[in-house]
Design a protein that fits this description.
- Pfam families: ANT.
- By secondary structure, this protein is an alpha+beta fold.
- It folds into two domains: 6-160, no CATH class; 171-249, no CATH class.
- It is built from nine helices and seven strands, in the order ββαααββαααβααββα.
- It has helices at 30-36, 42-58, 63-66, 86-94, 101-118, 130-162, 173-179, 184-193, 239-249; strands spanning 17-18, 27-29, 67-72, 79-85, 171-172, 215-223, 229-237.
- It has a four-stranded antiparallel beta sheet.
- The two termini are 37 Å apart.
Length: 262
């Protein structure tokens, strides 16, 4: 246990806190936390963020709100960053490598900050006894282990969904039907009935324009028996389209939800 918050000291993690100019919730940069949590490279830290996002999703939170994507232009390739709410930063800390002392320090800091936010009046770090900190850390570790076990349980399901992906990172409609526990023909029919897919004509079973961002339509030219050229279309589902279809059809949630392709 570190002395990070003892005697009312200012924590190094306070330095990364970015106040909201509109008076909303403070946030932390994921790339800033990467260094403070002892991860030298982003590709080593990104899986920690993904586990934290999955944990937030499993608990029913809006992942895009907690983990606000932010693209940084640094002169080379744009870099992805996330502006994390306090709770998102807490989940990131809890999903870090507990063998790293920097991760342990982050866990202690965000556990206390989360408790402060949930308790009124706010807790003064100097007033928390060492035994209380140990108890907070113990409870946080139990929660981390529970999340870890849940992630292990969900991993085979996620791998199974990945097996449905085509080479471009999208899903065939038949594969999505299988995920949702229905048949391809029934899924096409339901999407036509709900005016998501066009019901007739050359573009039958392709999405209407307002829903096109959830799908990708690939045209295929072919030669008719009379020698004329024709065009047919194959509809694929983007990762975002899976939950969109589920909600349109009132089907049970997929757990875990397939991730967006990076």
């Amino acid at each position: 246990m570190s002395d990070l918050l003892h005697i009312g000291e200012k924590s190094p993690f306070d330095e990364g806190c970015v106040p909201c100019p509109q008076g909303g919730e403070d946030r932390w940069s994921a790339r800033w936390l990467q260094g403070k949590m002892g991860y030298p490279r982003w590709n080593e830290f990104e899986p920690v963020i993904e586990r934290a996002k999955q944990a937030a999703h499993n608990q029913g939170f809006n992942v895009n709100t907690l983990f606000r994507a932010n693209t940084e232009k640094t002169g080379g390739r744009p870099q992805t960053d996330y502006m994390l709410t306090r709770f998102a930063a807490y989940l990131v800390a809890m999903n870090g490598d507990p063998r790293k002392p920097e991760v342990a320090a982050a866990q202690e800091y965000f556990v206390v900050k989360t408790r402060e936010a949930e308790t009124r009046p706010a807790i003064n770090g100097a007033d928390i006894t060492r035994l209380e900190l140990i108890e907070i850390a113990r409870n946080a570790e139990l929660e981390r282990l529970a999340l870890e076990a849940e992630n292990r349980e969900l991993a085979p399901k996620a791998e199974a969904y990945d097996s449905f992906l085509d080479a471009t990172g999208k899903y065939a409609v038949g594969a999505v039907a299988q995920m949702l526990g229905t048949s391809q023909n029934k899924l096409f029919r339901e999407l036509r009935n709900r005016k998501v897919f066009i019901a007739s004509g050359s573009r039958r079973n392709t999405p209407y324009q307002q829903y096109a961002h959830h799908f990708e339509v690939i045209p295929h030219e072919f030669e008719r028996s009379n020698g004329e050229m024709g065009c047919s279309y194959t509809t694929y589902v983007q990762p975002s389209g899976i939950d969109f279809i589920r909600r349109q059809l009132g089907m049970p949630a997929i757990d875990p939800l397939p991730a967006e392709a990076s």
